[in-house]
Design brief:
The complex is a heterodimer of chains A (242) and B (408). Chain A is of the alpha/beta class and 242 residues long. Chain A has a single domain, classed as P-loop containing nucleotide triphosphate hydrolases (Rossmann fold), CATH 3.40.50.300. Chain A contains 8 helices and 10 strands. Chain A has helices spanning 49-56, 79-89, 105-117, 122-134, 150-162, 180-197, 208-211, 234-241, and strands spanning 4-15, 23-34, 38-42, 64-69, 72-73, 90-93, 168-172, 200-204, 216-221, 224-230. In chain A, a hairpin with a 2-residue loop joins strand 4 (64-69) and strand 5 (72-73). Chain A is globular. Chain B is of the alpha+beta class and 408 residues long. Chain B has 14 helices and 10 strands. Chain B has a 6-stranded mixed beta barrel, surrounded by 4 helices. The two termini of chain B are 30 Å apart. The chains are: A alpha/beta (242), B alpha+beta (408).
């Protein structure tokens, strides 16, 4: 296995700490993800998948244990450093695509760059447009999200997640509210970026059909990892299916 | 454009109705502040101008003569003297040319004019009017009071044998330009009775003064009142109107003479002006508070509506400070727009006011002063208050938990 991109050791997460309703959602997670992996995170509702994803995404901090992102111990970083690390190392794709409705497709994709590197240059705008063309939206570049279909919006969200070329993209039910056909398209798109650009993906999904098409399936049950197996056979099948 | 600007402007454009609502509030607020300030400033300037139109800023006179008891108490005895106050006679300021020269060099004083004033009777035929005579040097007097502006006929000519009189006095005596009348005084050396030719009629703005005003040359008045070479008072003009009282006190200390400023002789007027200023200030403060509350409440709603978007921006790597600045900037932008529109509205209100509020003869009641500084300071104030209004919403936005905001 290549050098670990993320490394969780004994990570716990509790809510309502110090109150009577203190609940531990994650009980000591050990998990490592290498660069370029394509992994599914599955498990029943309430098993803690979203919480784990938020921890990895630095949107929440663990109550205990160690989480290293690209070799840095995140517990030692300040809020500002975490924010900066999140900006450059992680991309997010959410179930409800979460585009900013006031911005066009291209503008949505340039936003992370605007945040990390300052005013948008012509060069970066062109890069954003290239990404949108790569996700198949070459004819929708200047549409506002309201004028795009659900699948198209999710493509914009993927382009946005990839715009700063992060080593890891976290996807929370990226196909959750799409029909089967659109879901297949989106999934194929994620796979393509994984293979062409070496971006690692951690995909939370309910859909066992899609999970089976990932290289690795991590199963979370009741806040612990119940299964973590490679799915080597899948790669060839996916390639053949295309 | 930097991140904060792009996002703030886009958020404002997105929430169009809300944005116009707060810009509207800020506009009305700024317009009210500018209009009221201009109105009150204009009113006060006008009042002061009218008051000082016929008054010197500072008048320097000799000290009043005081009678003191001659007899000193013997040892062990007390004396209860009953001393009658002395009758004040008309006297000259001792060494007045030297005092005048000193005062002229003094910083803060821009003009000095000597005067001999006293009472007299104006006679023509059987008419007999009591008048207040002012003997002046025209060149110096003009620098104290714009007397030429008050001429309604003729010129301000006070050569020997010439006089300028109030217009009501002229009609009381039934005389006009180039007519002659007599002035009689009861001087210590016996009555003086001379004839004068009217060269000009003045309107001093107050009827009582117009009935009594007689201007002569300084030398003529000296002869009339038996004060050869003297000056019974010095009129001063200062460069800083409201520093007059301070200057007067210093002058009194330095010269040992009595110096009364216009602020002291018109203290009731000043109290009224001050009350007016305080009222205006109070109104302005409350308008500002209302505008701040309006902007704040709309922005708070906007933060709640944009929770999810704020969460996305945070997930994208936008820092708390950045989110905070996005909302502070929105406050500043709407306030700036409000101050631009408010300035225009205030100007329109002033134009309408000037058109509506007119004297019977069609001239404006008074000039409204639209000071450019008033616009600049209102705009700056509005932006400051806009940012202040946005502080609470911005803080709320920046402390949103992104994980929760996104899940909504």
């Amino acid at each position: 296995m290549a050098e670990a991109l993320i490394e969780l050791a004994g990570v716990r997460k509790s809510y309502g700490v110090g109150t009577e309703i203190e609940v531990e959602v994650l009980h000591g997670i050990n998990l490592a993800l290498a660069a370029g992996e394509f992994a599914a995170l599955v498990g029943p509702s309430g098993s803690g998948k979203s919480t784990l994803l938020n921890l990895i995404g630095l949107l929440e901090s663990p109550s205990g244990g160690s989480y290293r992102l690209r070799g840095r111990e995140t517990a030692e970083l300040s809020e500002a450093e975490l924010t900066a690390l999140r900006a450059t190392s992680l991309g997010f794709v959410f179930q409800f695509h979460h585009l900013l409705p006031a911005f066009t497709a291209t503008e949505n994709v340039t936003l992370p760059g605007l945040n990390a590197h300052g005013p948008v240059t012509g060069e970066r705008r062109e890069a954003a447009r290239d990404l949108l063309r790569a996700v198949g939206l070459g004819d929708r570049l200047d549409h506002p999200p309201g004028k795009l279909s659900g699948g198209q919006q999710q493509r914009v969200a993927i382009a946005r997640a990839l715009s700063l070329a992060p080593p890891l993209v976290l996807a929370d039910e990226p196909t959750g509210n799409l029909d089967t056909h659109a879901a297949d398209d989106i999934f194929a798109l994620l796979r393509r970026f994984n293979e062409e650009r070496g971006v690692a993906f951690l995909i939370v999904t309910h859909d066992p059909r899609l999970a089976r098409r990932c290289d690795r399936i991590i199963e979370l049950v009741d806040g612990t990892i119940a299964g973590d197996r490679p799915n080597a056979a899948v790669r060839g099948a996916e390639a053949a299916g295309r | 454009m930097p991140f904060e600007w792009v996002v703030a402007l886009r958020f404002l454009r997105e929430g169009r109705f809300q944005t116009w609502l707060i810009i509207g509030g800020a506009t009305v607020g700024v317009a009210v502040v500018i209009f009221i300030t201009a109105l009150v400033n204009g009113l006060q300037a006008n009042t002061i101008r009218r008051t000082l139109g016929t008054q010197a800023h500072i008048v320097v006179r000799p000290l009043e003569e005081v009678a003191t008891a001659q007899r000193q108490p013997e040892a062990g005895a007390a004396v209860l003297p009953r001393v009658q106050a002395r009758a004040q006679r008309l006297r000259s300021i001792d060494q007045w040319p030297a005092v005048q020269a000193t005062l002229e060099r003094r910083p803060g004083i821009v003009a000095v004019s000597p005067q001999v004033t006293g009472p007299a009777f104006a006679l023509r035929g059987d008419a007999n009017k009591s008048v207040a005579v002012q003997g002046v040097e025209p060149e110096r007097y003009r620098r104290i009071i714009a007397i030429d502006d008050k001429l309604v006929a003729g010129r301000f000519g006070v050569q020997p044998g010439e006089a300028v009189i109030g217009k009501d006095l002229a009609s009381d005596l039934g005389i006009g330009l180039d007519d002659r009348f007599r002035l009689v005084t009861a001087g210590a050396a016996g009555p003086v009775d001379d004839a004068y030719t009217v060269t000009g009629l003045v309107d001093l703005g107050i009827r009582d003064m117009n009935r009594r005003a007689v201007f002569l040359g300084l030398r003529t008045a000296q002869a009339l009142f038996d004060l050869p070479g003297g000056a019974s008072q010095l009129d001063l003009k200062v460069d800083e109107l409201f520093a007059a009282e301070t200057v007067a006190q210093q002058v009194a200390r330095e010269t040992g003479l009595t110096a009364d400023s216009w602020m002291k002789t018109n203290d009731q007027l000043l109290a009224a002006l001050y009350a007016q200023t305080v009222t205006t200030r109070t109104i302005r403060i409350f308008v500002a508070i209302v505008v701040v509350l309006g902007i704040a409440s709309v922005l708070v709603v906007s933060v709640v509506q944009k929770r999810r978007e704020i969460g996305i921006l945070r997930a994208m790597g936008a820092s708390r400070g950045r989110i905070q600045r996005v909302f502070l900037l929105q406050g500043a932008i709407v306030a700036l727009w409000g101050s631009l529109l408010g300035s225009a509205l205030a100007t329109a209100m002033v134009v309408v006011f000037l058109r509506v509020a007119r004297n019977a003869d069609g001239s404006p009641i008074f000039a409204l002063e639209l000071d450019p500084w008033l616009y600049v300071s209102s705009a700056l104030g509005a932006v400051v208050f806009g940012v202040l209004a946005a502080v609470a919403p911005a803080r709320r936005a920046s402390t949103l938990d992104p994980a929760q905001a996104i899940r909504m």
